[in-house]
Amino acid sequence: MADGLNEARALRVVEIVHDFQSLQRRIAEYAPNPAPEEFFEEGYQVLRQCRAEAAAVLAAPFPLDSSNFSSSSEEQEKRQLQRIIIDASARRFQAKKIYLRAVAAVRWSNDRNAILQGERPDQGHAVQLQQADNNLRSELAAITDARIINDFRNADTEAGFWLQDDPPRAIILEWIRSHPA
Q: N or C: fewer beta carbons within 10 Å in the chain?
């Protein structure tokens, strides 16, 4: 049943898509440029994977449902906006997860460069480089679905956004599973 909230839903779509675009721009800024002998180092592999995943999420088409276009009623508009909110929320979730992984990899790269100070890695660097690798793995492990959802909920609530139709984590994760990028 129509509830008169379609303008709020449309505004929510704009807010979520804006977050998604901001995350995509930040991810695009992280272009790994390792020396050839470092190409397969874990942090650089993570960065390349993040850029590829971000491009795939961006390129994934919106799944159209032609049944939603059979009528121009307010109820049809409501259902379509709710579907768009789910799609946009899932993409924003994916982009945030990719972004956090990219940030961890960039931090690893910066740590690695600070350790090496322009030198080639050798036994004198082994312990510090191993610690940088361990820090990267720990950071990556700390990037959980619950953390991302909570970060969004807290930021969106603090910003005073309308969240009534925002999907729960289970719906977002199901959408991602059923719509691989």
A: N
